[in-house]
Amino acid sequence: MKALRAYLRSPAGIIGAVLLIAVIAAALSADALFPRDPLALAGRPLQWPGANPRLPLGTDNLGRDIAGFLFHGARVSLLIGLVASVVAVGIGVLVGAVAGFYGGWVDDLLMRITEAFQTVPNFILLLVLVAVFGSELSVITIAIGLVGWTAPCRLVRAEFLSLRNREFVLAARGLGMRDMPLILGEVLPNALPPVIVYASVVMAIAILLESALAFLGLSDPNIASWGNMIGAGRSVLRTEWYVSAIPGAAILVTVLAFSLVGQGLNDALNPRMQVL
Amino acid sequence: MMRLAALALRRLAQSLPVLAVILVGLFLLLQLAPGDTVDALMAQMGGGSAEDAARLREQYGLDAGVAVQLGRYLLRLASFDLGQSAIYGKPVASVIGERLAVTALFMSCALAFAFAAGLVLGVLAARRVNGWPDTLISTLGLVFYAIPSFWLGLMLIVLFSVKLAWLPPGGFETIGAGLTGLARVADIATHLVLPVVSLALIFLAIYLRLMRASMLEVMSLDFVRTARAKGLPEGKVLRRHVLRNALLPMVTFVGLQFSTMLGGSVVIESVFSLPGLGRLAFESVVQRDLNTLLGIVLVSALLVILVNFVVDLLYARLDPRIGA
Amino acid sequence: MSAPLLSLRGVSVRLPRGADREFALQDVDLDVAAGEILCVVGESGSGKSLTATAILGLLPAPRVTLAGGRILFEGEDLARLPPARLRAIRGARIGMIFQEPMTALNPVMPVGRQIAEVLEEHGGDLARVPALLAEVGIPDPPAAARAYPHELSGGQRQRAMIAMALAMEPRLLIADEPTTALDVTTQARILALIREIQARRGTGVLFITHDFGVVAEIADRVAVMQRGRIVETGPARQVLEAPSHPYTRALIAAVPPLAPPRRPATPPGPAVLEVEDLRKTYRSGGLFARRRSVEALKGVSFTLHRGETLGIVGESGSGKSTIARALVRLLPTDGGSIRLDGAELRATSRAAFRPMTRHIQMVFQDPFASLNPRRRAGDLIAQGPRIHGASRAEARARAVRMLELVGLDPSAADRFPHEFSGGQRQRIGLARALALEPAVLVADEPVSALDVSVQAQVLRLLAELKARLSLSLVFITHDLRVAAQVCDRILVMHRGEMVEQGETAILFAAPQHPYTQALLASVPGRTWTPTGPEALV
């Protein structure tokens, strides 16, 4: 309750929440407002926005309804963002907690693996995964999670390293507590606030990664992804630039919403930390 | 200097296990992949008998055990043999070699621009914290961070190349112009402006936020109060005491973020048709040329290790406490 | 008396909205004459440090601002001076030293350069840097000038700070807790240095401290501060020997005297904890980092008898905290044995040790860090019994009894740690340890983070509980005054070695080892006996 009130004091948090609710509403109402397949032909290709009242945002060069595509795309972006960040944060928390809590050679080993993942540029690793395992939606979502777990991992590890020698953890250990309750009950709850804040950044990055993949035509061709339409619009960029411009703006708004929510959470949960 | 040399050696030794993990990881990834090189070859040839497949597997050494194959793979890499590129019909090493210079130049420009602009904006914002310049700069930072780089590239092309016709929409230089010397430098520079801005903007946003936070953090430290108590004017306090300490986290971040930036070059090089490593990576995925793709992974990992090595040395120069 | 060097008249400082009070300082009047040392003494939150920053115009504006009053320095009102004029005075005519020399110096600039900055800014002679370092007693000044702060010891860093503050021969020196972060022997040397330089140059000194021992050591006059107001001023002798304000009297009564109280001669009980040849070496660095090792314990042996309090005293790095953590197995050790009622603790497996934890418990130093901020007080105390097999209801009932035992209301069980004061938190930490009914309690600097009046209350509680529960106590402290009052026997540690042990009264009266002698000679205000101390034991 107190955290919610602190969140609502942050202007960034409020704007972010409003934007995010709008994106979620678009995703939820997509089927009701645009019951047709967003990938199907809706009318004559390349109608400018406003030219046809039935198609408020016009059509792209494949004759798809841009407005409908936009709403269905919100669903795809949110789904990918959510699942990928659950994968990334899940792996990150697990590896980071073990490395930070036990230290020593366990930490050394896990950190070399983390560094290896960090050393290969994440988008190139994503390309390798797509090249090897194909580009179905599920594969892409998990792959995005797999290339994004290192940052939350380092964050959790750093928190665990500093918390494990804090006096209250030592006190619980001194009472004879076993490792599992120590990790889950004493350390983890105190390590989580910065991770929760960072999860919003992970979501923003996941959405950007998927849209870039879709833009290059390497994402699942059977889903309505915003990046996909931007890519399609490239061939008519000189004249009908709106085909690329509109879905790009949608990505911008969604990513901005997550960043602002992250900032609001940060203001509410740990006033001294800065999100990056 | 002994301190720096020892540190350099230690850092190099540390990157060896990381490299080993990457190589083994890539190898295992290929083992996991559905189908192997022979399947791909057979598919390209339009199918073949099981005997053909077995013969090919023997020829490629794929009939040996996993450990033996791993050993061979590492041995080949040690002699920098990255295999043949299927699309270009040349050794992968030479294909990559041709593209490396463009990417290196592109990356250096983007990094320099993002770092310098982020630094200046971060300092300006921190000096007027919560004033209007701070609000403006911080808002810009948030928006920059949210713009997809490839989309920004397209929009910049629409504005500056199509509508205004100030800058070229793509390519590394004007082909067939036969420019030399300074004229060529200027030509390449005009071609790089839009890609550099598109790629750098997100990193600029990150650096500006980091620099602002770091400045504010340092300004609250005791030694800054000491500097004021000495009677130093605010300008000197900032230049001599705050700035250098605030730069330390920025320098660390350049190392951490370089890998991400290199990844970002794939999309931007594709948008602007720059003949660099990133575009090559994209082409090799489209053409299913795994040899080239893995070669790029290896070379980019080496680049990241190299940049981090330089960054570590720079950091040690700036901070006398390191490695002491 | 001539006109004072510095006069504060009616100075008030406003705190931001939402602070615990509106004004940090209210109507503060102070005078410092040339050649005298005025000590401003008070507990944490009294506003004494803000007084120092207000004089130099270094308040953390815009949150904390000067609300009124005049700050007259050599006839000029610093509160109304334009920034450029004030800067010309800072560092030149008023020098300042801070509490923590490590953070007060720029970590990435050589020390000599930082001193030279003062000279440069105010038109001094840059060549004087080595001479200044020599004056504050730093060996090999040219090398020290080239060194970075982390390459000097704590005492040398503070000497360098003093050299910096005195570089322009200021008329006034403001010292804000300059020895609080230092070990007692270093503190004695720094106090002597400040005293010597100010006597030689006739500098006026405004010395801020929380420690009455330091006041007794160095002050000519004293001003006592309580919640932003000066409650008493006067010559040091008068304030220390015959305080007039009730607050001053209470503060002084809470200072433990250095002389150990007379104890009834009771025969020692049976041995409960036997430590033999305990060894610990800290090793850092891994496969690729440079390896370093520090011998923290070089074979320590001692015996704790039932019902006894054994004090372990020493300076930082002596190994005293390492002993505490080794006893409860929070640190692995390298050799020796720890026997509790005959059972070996050190060499047992972790699983075998776990049930033994109930017999030996620990109380920590920092009351703000030692309680999990996300658990209620009752749950924190019930945790131990729960782990060792008590039912939820039993553990809960035990927690309530423990709260009463340490003098807290049972309703405190439902509150979170941040709702308690430092002293109350330390009581909760004590209740948590006692809930397991341990045979031995290890207390690691349990009162060092507390203000002197709270410290006295916690020590009194500890003494009471010890008598009631016939506890055996290992009491780690750096404060010899506290040790004198609390401990039956004392063990002196120095760089990982046990240099001396003996009964408290005997050890204080006739220390044998040169290090013990030096330690005792360094206690600030050792010749002063606080008036009217209440008995602690």
TrEMBL record, chain A:
Originating organism: Belnapia rosea
PROSITE patterns: ABC_TM1 (PS50928)
Cited InterPro entries: BP-dependent_transpt_permease, MetI-like, MetI-like_sf
Cellular compartments annotated: Cell membrane
Lineage: Bacteria, Pseudomonadati, Pseudomonadota, Alphaproteobacteria, Acetobacterales
One GO CC term on file: plasma membrane
Domain of life: Bacteria
Family, as annotated: Belongs to the binding-protein-dependent transport system permease family.
Record protein name field: Peptide/nickel transport system permease protein
Automatic annotation (TrEMBL), chain B:
Location(s), subcellular: Cell membrane
Lineage: superkingdom: Bacteria
Keyword terms, alphabetized: Cell membrane, Membrane, Transmembrane, Transmembrane helix, Transport
Domain ABC transmembrane type-1 positions: 100-315
Main localization category: membrane
PROSITE patterns according to UniProt: ABC_TM1
Membrane topology: Multi-pass membrane protein
SUPFAM superfamilies: MetI-like (SSF161098)
Single GO biological process annotation from the record: transmembrane transport
GO cellular component: plasma membrane
InterPro entries, A to Z: MetI-like, MetI-like_sf
Transmembrane feature ranges: 100-124, 136-162, 188-210, 246-272, 292-315
PANTHER family (UniProt xref): ABC TRANSPORTER PERMEASE PROTEIN, DIPEPTIDE TRANSPORT SYSTEM PERMEASE PROTEIN DPPB-RELATED
Family listed: Belongs to the binding-protein-dependent transport system permease family.
UniProt protein name: Peptide/nickel transport system permease protein
Organism: Belnapia rosea
UniProtKB/TrEMBL annotation, chain C:
Classification via InterPro entries: AAA+_ATPase, ABC_Ni/Peptide_Import, ABC_transporter-like_ATP-bd, ABC_transporter-like_CS, Oligopep_ABC_C, P-loop_NTPase
Protein's membrane topology: Peripheral membrane protein
Keywords noted in UniProt: ATP-binding, Cell membrane, Membrane, Nucleotide-binding, Transport
UniProt-listed GO biological process terms: peptide transport; transmembrane transport
Primary localisation category: membrane
Gene Ontology terms, MF aspect: ATP binding; ATP hydrolysis activity
Subcellular location as annotated: Cell inner membrane
GO cellular component: plasma membrane
Keyword ATP-binding appears in the UniProt entry: yes
Domain ABC transporter: 6-252, 273-520
Listed SMART domains: AAA
PANTHER family referenced in this protein's UniProt entry, alphabetically: DIPEPTIDE TRANSPORT ATP-BINDING PROTEIN DPPD (PTHR43297:SF2), OLIGOPEPTIDE TRANSPORT ATP-BINDING PROTEIN APPD (PTHR43297)
Family: Belongs to the ABC transporter superfamily.
UniProt xrefs under NCBIfam families: PRK10419.1 (NF007739), PRK11308.1 (NF008453)
UniProt name for this protein: Peptide/nickel transport system ATP-binding protein
Species classification: Bacteria, Pseudomonadati, Pseudomonadota, Alphaproteobacteria, Acetobacterales
